[in-house]
Design goal:
This protein is an alpha+beta fold. It has four domains: 182 residues, no CATH class; 135 residues, no CATH class; 124 residues, At1g16640 B3 domain, CATH 2.40.330; 104 residues. The strands form ten sheets. An eight-stranded mixed β-sheet has the order 14-15-20-21-17-18-19-16. The longest helix is centred in the middle third of the chain and has 21 residues. The radius of gyration is 27 Å and the shape is globular.
Length: 761
């Protein structure tokens, strides 16, 4: 029986008839999702949200953003088979062993746990620091809380270029269905022997990071790196419901990375906007499961959560001296270790139950802090804040007296434990006008990325920053800096070869003699004369041959030029750096807001102060704009001029309106959070979206459809007894060729192929 892609041939429900299926009639991932959550139409969001809500409800642990991405991208079956029904290649999975060093394995990584008999196929669903100095009752030395990877002691960050950190990985050993899962008796024997997994069914490894910068990557960036390198074949497999390469229409590394980060941002936004889910960081859980936990009177139920919250609140309650003087006390508590002290908790903390307990406890503590304190300050005088979200399942800081510390968001990890062991920073000499400062604190914005390091060369890429243009320098990757410093000393002449095709290319500047200035912890090239058409955010790829002093710097051309704000470019760029730094009043000659008109001041401030999205949008609290522009409440005429400029920019679609929310401490959030008052936002939109209308369609405001949606080629699961037609088999082979897949051209059993097409929106 031939499979016809134009008719339903899957067990999945049709639109409006239940939960959508990644291998169903309509692909859940669409091209618009590669641009991030904000670019996705509401109808597409709703379909993906229904599926992800069902995934979170079906899995026995909180679902991380990367795990939710896996579910929709690799086709997680909600009927009980998990990934077992998906044609994933198990041989592509990285292998890990208990107690041994391992490469970075972020949450979401699909792995093979080596054993003495049958291998364990699993998905990493939780990851945290497992520092050996955490005490039996969860007490954490101050320097461990917030310490960077590789830290060796209080204030000692370590000197290696490839830091290590002990981590605990929680694998879901049943993610691939019953056929690839061991029996309870087999798992019990493995836990008892403790050679491959520990007694809780977890894996403890010493993780090797390629660089200190890689160790600071957020979860989504780390997972994108993992998919694009370690499991690249799996990511680009034509057997997934719809391939990333088909969604972005390219197999270039830059396009794949941007599209992948956009998809992860879309999944993050979907989970955060669901009314039936609660999130803790990147982990999502159902509100029903949280309510059930609070009602539970057994181990790790509501009574134990209240007891732990009370213990953290009173952990720093000081003793009283004879004359009533208060002794300052600071206590750091690891949630993961503290949970193990509750009677009857041992069995509940095995397997993925540990991840569920840790996330529920952190949510409970967050609710207590938000509901019973003022920015973390309780009536007993103690201040309770989250200090480290990674180590030991989360480290909470209890300090008394708390009223002597400046208030801040108590749920934003501050790392005060580690910071308390560092030398105090020098006091600033004067306070500059906020107009002339990059007001937003964008950690790791524009950091470099190691692409390859082998016996011949080191290749990395990084965006050009405004400071680089103004001052004529560029940072070296730490590995390159270390190699040149070892071979040639702290100052060395370097031949910089520029490979750039642009309207301002000058043959005399194709090669330059510059200087490598190499410190003990960093290095840079100085004395660079940048081509006239270089701009902040331009992506640069650099190659350094081993043993040499020549560095090749190249730009990458786009398929076609794009208009980003006021700038038209034909080269790859980092949209976030471009939004932040290529603002009115800033160029290679300086950075100042002096002399700008109201429209330029508004654009400069929104781009510098707004919350950045992955695709370079910046969103800002509209009511905070005047104070951010002038550093104070402006005069009535100035405020009116700014408001008039905002109205004009909205009318010209250079800015766009949006809705966010504000928490109890005045911090804005986007998307809007449940139970928080909504506030108007203004957003800078760097690229005008293309509006595609069907042939013979009407103009906006008329009757009939207003656009079409491009649907890339994708796999679809067939009903039992059905088989694909020869036409679809041939179409799939051609699809594989377009993705660069030289083997595995046959359709997997039980699937057909839907060719790319357009459909009415």
């Amino acid at each position: 029986m031939g499979g016809d892609p134009s008719k339903s041939a899957t067990g999945g429900a049709r639109e409006g008839e239940g939960v959508p299926d990644p291998y169903g009639d309509r692909a859940l991932l669409t091209a618009s999702m590669t641009d991030g959550y904000e670019a996705v139409p509401d109808q597409e969001r709703d379909r993906l949200r229904r599926y992800l809500e069902a995934v979170v409800a079906a899995r026995p642990m909180p679902v991380h953003t990367t795990v939710a991405f896996n579910a929709v991208y690799f086709g997680y079956d909600l009927g009980g088979d998990g990934y077992g029904g998906s044609p994933l290649c198990l041989d592509d999975f990285p292998v890990i062993s208990f107690g041994q060093a391992a490469p970075v394995l972020p949450v979401g990584a699909m792995v093979c746990v080596a054993t003495g008999s049958e291998p364990l196929y699993a998905e990493i669903v939780h990851r945290e620091g497992a520092h050996p100095q955490v005490g039996a009752l969860g007490d954490v030395p101050a320097w461990v809380s917030g310490a960077p990877a590789g830290a060796e002691g209080p204030g000692r960050e370590g000197t290696g270029t490839a830091p290590r950190r002990r981590e605990l990985l929680v694998p879901d050993l049943h993610a691939f269905g019953p056929a690839l899962s061991l029996s309870p008796a087999q798992l019990h024997r493995l836990r008892t022997r403790r050679r491959w997994i520990n007694e809780d069914g977890h894996v403890v490894v010493d993780v090797r990071y390629p660089s200190p910068e890689a160790a600071r990557h957020d979860d989504l960036t780390a997972y994108a790196d993992h998919l694009l390198t370690t499991t690249r074949e799996q990511l680009l497999s034509p057997y997934v419901p719809v391939s990333l390469a088909a969604l972005v229409g390219s197999t270039r590394d830059e396009d794949l990375r941007d599209g992948l980060l956009g998809l992860l941002d879309t999944v993050r936004g979907i989970l955060g906007s669901s009314a039936t889910l609660r999130t803790w960081g990147h982990y999502a859980m159902t509100r029903a499961s949280l309510a059930e936990c609070w009602r539970d009177t057994g181990p790790l139920g509501g009574d134990d959560l209240r007891s732990l919250a009370s213990a953290v609140e009173h952990a720093a309650t000081p003793g009283r001296r004879r004359h009533g003087l208060t002794v300052p006390v600071t206590v750091y508590t690891s949630i993961g270790r503290r949970l193990r002290e509750f009677p009857g908790a041992t069995e509940l903390l095995r397997g993925v139950g540990y991840a569920a307990a840790v996330c529920r406890t952190n949510v409970a503590l967050a609710d207590v802090v938000q509901g019973e304190s003022e920015q973390g300050l309780f009536e007993n005088g103690s201040r309770i804040t989250l200090d480290d979200a990674f180590e030991g399942g989360g480290v909470w800081r209890s300090h008394h007296p708390g009223d002597r510390e400046a208030p801040r968001d108590p749920l934003t990890p501050a790392g005060r434990g580690w910071a308390s062991t560092l030398p105090a920073p020098p006091e600033p000499e004067e306070e500059l006008s906020p107009v002339d400062l990059p007001l937003a604190d964008d950690a790791f914005l524009g950091t470099d990325e190691l692409l390859r390091s082998d016996a011949q060369e080191i290749v990395w890429r990084a965006p050009l920053r405004l400071a680089h243009l103004i001052e004529g320098w560029f940072p070296l990757h730490p590995r390159v800096a270390e190699e040149i410093r070892t071979s040639h000393g702290p100052h060395c002449p370097v031949r910089l070869e520029l490979d750039h095709v642009g309207p301002a290319r000058d043959g005399k500047k194709a090669a330059q003699d510059v200087t490598a200035e190499l410190g003990h912890d960093a290095g840079r090239l100085i004395g660079i004369t940048w081509p006239r058409d270089f701009f902040p955010g331009l992506m640069l790829e650099l190659r350094s041959l081993r043993g040499g002093t020549a560095i090749r710097l190249a730009t990458t051309r786009l398929k076609e030029p794009v208009q980003v704000g006021d700038r038209k470019t034909g080269h790859c760029y980092d949209p976030r750096v471009l939004t932040r730094e290529d603002v009115p009043g800033s160029d290679r000659h300086g950075d100042s807001a002096v002399g700008l008109g109201p429209r330029q001041l508004v654009l400069r401030t929104v781009r510098r102060c707004g919350l950045l999205t992955l695709d370079g949008h910046a969103l800002m609290d509209r009511s905070a704009l005047p104070g951010a522009v002038y550093g104070r409440q402006p005069a009535r005429a100035q405020a009116a001029a700014l408001e008039s400029a905002v109205v004009e920019l909205l009318a010209d679609r250079i800015l766009e309106p949006a809705l966010g929310s504000r928490d109890a401490w005045g911090q804005p959030h986007f998307p809007a959070r449940d139970r928080e008052p909504t506030i108007p936002l203004i957003g800078y939109r760097p690229v005008q979206r293309r509006v595609i209308r069907p042939w013979g369609g009407t103009e906006p405001g008329g009757e009939g459809p207003h656009g079409v949606q491009f649907v890339p080629g994708h796999l679809r699961r067939l009903r039992p007894g059905c088989s694909p037609s020869d036409v679809q088999k041939a179409a799939f082979r051609e699809h594989c060729r377009s993705l660069g897949k030289a083997d595995g051209w046959e359709l997997p059993y039980g699937y057909t192929f839907v060719t790319e097409h357009t459909r009415s929106c």
